Every structure is written in C-alpha cells, then in structure tokens.
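Please, structure for the following, as tokens.
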Amino acid sequence: ATWGPMIGTLVITKIDPDFKEKFSSSAFVYRGFKQYLIVIAIFLAIGFAPAIPLIFIEGFESNSVSIIILYLFTFFTIQFVTSGTEEIGWRGFLLPELLKKYDTWAASFRTGIIWALWHAPVVLYIFYLQDMPLFAMVFSFFGFSVGIIAMSAVHSYFFIKTRSVLFSVYLHAMSNTIPLITGLLILNAYKTAILSQLLIWVVVAVIIKKNPRMFPKKEKNS
C-alpha cells in the first residue's frame, strides 16, 4: 500500500509526456548537504525535547548504543524504500499540481488531508488491534491527521526549497526514524507522542514566520 502513490505517479509519467519531462528533470537531484543536516536537527529536537524529562524520571532502556544504531540504520533503510516512496506521489505529483491553483498553505493542507486519509485503513486497523473503543479510535485518528497536516507543511517548505523528490523521500524516512530513538531509550515513549505532534506545529509556525513570501497572509476583505 505504501507504494500506491509512487505507482500512480509513474503511471502518469507514461500517460503525460510533459509531466514526465518536468518530473525527470528535477525530481531526484541532489541539492547539497546543508538541508539534510537541518532535517536531522529538527527531528532530533522534536524527538528528544519532550523525552528528556522522562529520561530523568523513568530512566533508560537497557539497549546498548550499538543495538540502537543498528535498529536506526535498518529502520531508516526500510522506511526509505517503503513509506518514503509515497513522496513520489505526494510531493512529486500532488503538491506541484495543487500549487498551480492554491497558495502554499492551502496546497499543504489539502495534501495533508489526502495523505492522512490514505493512511486511514492501516491506522484504524492498528487502533482496532489495540482494542480501542470507537470514540478513542476517532479521536486518535484526528490527532494523527493533525500531525500529518503539520508534516505536510514542513514537506512543502523543503520541497519548494529543494525541488527534489529525493529529498522528500529522505525527509519522510527520517521523520519516521528519529522518533524511534526515544522509543528505544525511554520506558514509556508513548507519553511523548502528543508533545512531539505539538512541536511539529511549532516548526511550522517558525517556517511560516521566516518565510512570509512562501506562506503569505491572506488579506482581510474590507
């Protein structure tokens, strides 16, 4: 299922030669190392900021550093070739198409909604396996969707900066991987989940404030 958006986009490249030319010319270019380091710094901050108090209160897991590094490398690699490939659809096709009609925030919001709904079957099934009552499933999925919309805005910012789907794949895989660090270090890492979601919105707020041209404010009608 994670390959669905990628497959859809590849089918479009076969149908639309103009889109294929635009996609092929810039989708997988390398845009420099700085942006890659910025992504690591952002998600380390998001992952560890809410986790630090719990580390002091509840202590560390017994996993060795070498095991944690092995887990992270393996998980990142898996994410890069599975969930990360969704970006070929989301940022490779959907976002650029929406940006033709909407501003950055409106395009990001719509992309985020579609992205969240795409995950609905697997996310709700996981909640079902956890024996969640219906109201808890609905509330949890709403929280998941709010976080996805925030991540969509972060993705839009970096995609517009880099114009590289390869970078979006990396960003997707890294955002899924780094939070695993807290899961390996903290006894009850689920307690950090809500704070982590809120911190993503803090990142979005900073991006919007520092990039007013990319995220222009709508003028109020007089």
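Residues 134-162 form the longest helix (29 residues). The chain is about 75% helix and 0% strand.
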